[in-house]
Queue: 3 jobs
Job 1
Amino acid sequence: MEKKTQEEAIKQLYRKFEFRNIRQEEAGQAAEIERICFSANEACSEKMMYERVAKAPELFLTAIDRQTGRIAGFLNGLATEETSFRDEFFTDVSLHKPEGRTIMLLGLDVLPQYRRQGLARELMRQYLQRERENGKHIVLLTCVESKVEMYQKMGFLDCGIAESSW
């Protein structure tokens, strides 16, 4: 995509969406979006989503549809000093260490009606920039095979098959 076209696409996203941290009262919305975006065995439980929002709201980035006022998509993670992704990050919010320099990304969720508009890419771009400015040095994620190419286009390196059973 040409630079001018990319810039216009980003401007369009800013006209359509507000990008900000999640609010406590939006945890239920986030849990519902997670249920829609992930299979039952991969989705964060409602209880866990509420815990993540309570413990680490600063590590959520939401895209709010300016027309509806509702979340269209979000990205969330936990901070740690660990440098290896393990399944417990999905289920144990006590592993969050705000001063940690590593971010374990736990989910990139975009509702189906908002996909193919560049929203996921913009959420990731903003999130990575923000966390770099906040002193984070490493961002790790785990994903299904079909998503590897998408994340590579966002700048991630494929480090092979994780030890995750999630």
Job 2
Amino acid sequence: LGIAVGLPGFFLNLAIGLYLLWFFTECVRDSANGGTRAPEAFATTGFGDMWSQEQHIIGCYLILLGPVGFYHAFTQKTDAIFWLLLAYGALFFPMGLLACIMFDSVRGLNPILLVCSIFSTFFQYIGLVLLIVAIILAFSALPDLETNDTEQPQPPKISTLILGGIFFGIAIYFALVVAHLIGRFYWRNQEKLNWEV
């Protein structure tokens, strides 16, 4: 939609993206409390509360996955440092994300808390990480829609927009599955984690 509408579409996409980020946190929290269905999509949460939750998630992303993104953006390399940073992010991000959501604070990124939590639920957590990585790899195997052989920018075709919408829907579904898996991990292992939240 943003491609078709221009600048107003950009702000619309931004609002939708922020809402989806908030809804992702609600799905994690609901599953962590034992919920088996998606929570209410149009809750009466105020914008301030939504933005507060989103800041924790954005901070978690920047601290744990930002290094690999910045390294690749500046060096355009996939060398040993890239793979080490990616492994660091993949290992700590699900636990850090869960901790930030459950504590409703960036103090969930305390390294001692993360390391102790991972070791206290080691086999279950490694299984969760591998499952999330498999879901991400399955989604990344979808075909790329932005193949443009010419250097001239061209307006997108209707078929590209439709396929883009379908892939966006698939991406949202995968994200909600990951949110449920992370929340369910907490529900099953909250005694071992002993976070007292």
Job 3
Amino acid sequence: EALYAWGLPLDIKAGYIERAELQLPWNRLGSEPVTITLDGIYLVASPVDESRSDEGAKREWRWARKQARIDHLSAQRSTAEGGKRASETEAEADGGGAGQGGRLSRLTRIVNNVQLSFRSVHVRYEDALNSTAPFALGATLAELSVYSADERGERAYNADGSVQYKVAALRCLAVYHHCACDRVLQPDATLDAAARWLRGLVHSD
């Protein structure tokens, strides 16, 4: 039901991440970057089969959409209140001495230098209901990296809060459409088998 909140009549057949890694240089926080890596991001969706949806499932879908709307309004209110508190905190920091300002400056440096890496991404949509023959479309990505850089575009730790250079490196992005495809993800497929198949469709060169 992950996509119900968006109002999309789609079911998730498979959705998982093979590996998540967080590297924290505890002894050098503020001088070396924090690295976040997600490897093997797979998502397979298909249309909701309304002929198999009972009244309970339909009520759940409608409630998810209402809950998403409530969450959205709540997030807007929290953002507005957070902005007000941030302004008050900044005012206190201006008059609170150099110690508080130093801590905020270090936190800013850490956040500004977070490095993100997404590897082996495959998002796929399969449809065997709305066509005379099954078809699939999707997108694959070998890697997307986002990191701080110097003025020449070289990877570097940036301690200057006034000027920030960011680089986004994209490798092997592909979009495909299979007409009358002879293979779709089966409901009884194991996660390991599905992961191997989905990863095999990602070009890495």
